[in-house]
Amino acid sequence: MGAKKKIASTLGGLAMAGAMILGGTAGTASAYSDSVTDPISSLPGNEIQSNIWMSNTYFYQTQRYQVSAKFLGYNPPNADWIKTAWTIKANGLGVSIGGVSGGSASGNTLSGTWTNYNNWISDYSGSYNISGVPISGSGNNTASFLARGVKQGATASIFRFY
User: Fold this and answer.
1) Which end of the chain has the least Cβ crowding within 10 Å, N or C?
2) Do 52 and 82 touch, CB atoms closer than 8 A?
3) Model-wide pTM > 0.90
4) pLDDT per residue of the chain (162 residues) written in tens, 0 to 9
């Protein structure tokens, strides 16, 4: 490979990396998401998983989200209870969240919880609208459970620019 091709290849790679870091590929991404899975040392063969997903939509469009808590494994196969608890925020000038379907809103924050009993999963989805001039947004979901007297949790988080 010639020196010019190496430089062009390197510059192209750096430009792509910079665009991805700055969120330049947001137009092509379909969503923002995170998933965290932690082993449960007191229950060998089981894991707790937290998931959060937010749509990649412009701030003036309806925003959608999904959260879940999963108790994965076989020892036991179901938790006594499993809960997903989420908080979504939009930050900026005069920002507030309204038009909520799933959870409750106060100012620039949306939050909620969902608990299932004698199950391995607790999941929830909803939508909301943003007013004002948002600059960034974030979401956190904490998955927690009780099984055989053991409690544990895991948290997944995302951040985005609008």
Assistant:
1) N
2) no
3) no
4) 454 444 434 434 444 444 444 444 444 558 999 999 999 999 999 999 999 999 999 989 999 999 999 999 999 999 999 999 999 999 999 999 999 999 999 999 999 999 999 999 999 999 999 999 999 999 999 999 999 999 999 999 999 998
Per the CB < 8 A criterion, the answer to whether 53 and 32 are in contact is yes
Q: ∠ at Cα 76 (70, 77), nearest 5°?
A: 50
SS (H, E, C) 36-104: EEEECCCCCCEEEEEEEEEECCCCCCCEEEEEEEEEEECCCCCEEEEEEEEEEEEEEEEEEEEEEECCE
β-pairing verdict for 121-147 and 150-161 = antiparallel
Matching residue, tokens 């909520």: 100
Q: Which amino acid is at 61?
A: Q
